[in-house]
C-alpha cells in the first residue's frame, strides 16, 4: 500500500492556489491508488516552532542519555521525521513568498533534516541521504511569472534539500501569474493536472 505525505504551507485557505493543487493531487492519487494511505500535514493549521537550543543539542547528541527537557523538545521533530521516512511519495504544496518558501515550510525542513535520521555521515566531509527510494512533487503557486526566472529561489532550494536527504526524484509544477489580470485559473489548474497525472503514473 502506497503512503503519501502531503505538506501544505499556504498561510491562506480561501483562494489559495497551492491548496487547490494539493486537493487535486489527493483526488488523482486516490483514483490511481485506491488503497493509498494519505497523511496530510498542514503547516498553517499546526504551526511549527523554530529550532531551539535544546533541539540542536538533541540533534547532535553523541548518546541517548539526554536530559528530559531535550527529549521533550525532540518529540515533534521525531514525529515529523517519521512521517517523512514512512512515505513513498512526498508532496509539498507551497506558495512563493518573497521569491522563496514560506517560513512555515522552512520550519518543517529544519525539523526533518536531521543527522542520523534523514541523513548520515559516511566519511569525513561526506554525507548520505536516508530518504532513498522516494519521489517528491512540489506544487508551487506564484503571483508573477517567475518559474523560469532567476528570482525563483523555491526550486533550487528545494532541489538541494531533496538531494541532501536522498530523495531520488523531485518534480515541480507551477501555477504562475496568479496575481495578474490575465490569469486563468481553470487553464492553469488543467495544466497542473496533467503534470500530476504524469508524475503519479511514473511513480
UniProtKB/TrEMBL annotation:
InterPro entries: Flavodoxin_fold, Flavoprotein-like_sf, FMN-dep_NADH:Q_OxRdtase_AzoR1, NADH:quinone_OxRdtase_FMN_depd
Protein EC: 1.6.5.-, 1.7.1.17
Domain Flavodoxin-like fold: 2-186
Binding-site positions, FMN: 10, 96-99, 141-144
Domain of life: Bacteria
Catalytic activity: 2 a quinone + NADH + H(+) = 2 a 1,4-benzosemiquinone + NAD(+); N,N-dimethyl-1,4-phenylenediamine + anthranilate + 2 NAD(+) = 2-(4-dimethylaminophenyl)diazenylbenzoate + 2 NADH + 2 H(+)
Cofactor section: FMN
SUPFAM superfamilies: Flavoproteins
Cofactor note: Binds 1 FMN per subunit.
Keywords for this protein: Flavoprotein, FMN, NAD, Oxidoreductase
Subunit structure: Homodimer.
Family to which this protein belongs: Belongs to the azoreductase type 1 family.
Function: Also exhibits azoreductase activity. Catalyzes the reductive cleavage of the azo bond in aromatic azo compounds to the corresponding amines. Quinone reductase that provides resistance to thiol-specific stress caused by electrophilic quinones.
Protein name: FMN dependent NADH:quinone oxidoreductase
Organism of derivation: Marinobacterium maritimum
Amino acid at each position: 500500500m502506497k503512503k503519501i505525505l502531503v505538506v501544505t504551507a499556504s498561510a491562506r485557505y480561501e483562494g489559495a492556489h497551492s491548496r487547490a493543487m494539493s486537493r487535486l493531487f489527493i483526488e488523482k492519487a486516490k483514483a490511481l491508488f485506491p488503497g493509498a494511505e494519505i497523511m496530510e500535514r498542514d503547516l498553517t493549521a499546526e504551526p511549527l516552532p523554530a529550532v531551539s537550543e535544546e533541539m540542536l543539542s538533541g540533534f547532535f547528541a553523541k548518546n541517548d542519555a539526554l536530559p528530559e527537557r531535550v527529549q521533550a523538545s525532540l518529540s515533534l521533530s521525531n514525529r515529523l521525521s517519521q512521517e517523512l521516512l514512512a512515505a513513498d511519495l512526498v508532496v509539498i504544496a507551497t506558495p512563493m513568498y518573497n521569491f522563496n518558501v514560506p517560513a512555515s515550510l522552512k520550519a518543517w525542513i529544519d525539523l526533518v533534516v536531521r543527522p542520523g535520521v534523514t541523513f548520515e555521515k559516511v566519511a569525513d566531509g561526506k554525507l548520505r541521504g536516508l530518504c532513498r527510494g522516494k519521489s517528491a512533487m512540489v506544487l508551487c503557486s506564484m503571483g508573477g511569472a517567475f518559474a523560469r526566472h532567476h528570482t525563483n529561489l523555491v526550486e533550487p532550494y528545494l532541489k538541494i534539500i531533496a538531494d541532501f536527504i536522498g530523495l531520488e526524484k523531485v518534480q515541480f509544477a507551477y501555477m504562475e501569474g496568479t496575481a495578474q489580470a490575465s490569469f486563468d485559473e481553470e487553464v492553469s489548474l488543467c495544466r497542473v493536472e496533467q503534470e500530476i497525472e504524469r508524475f503519479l503514473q511514473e511513480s
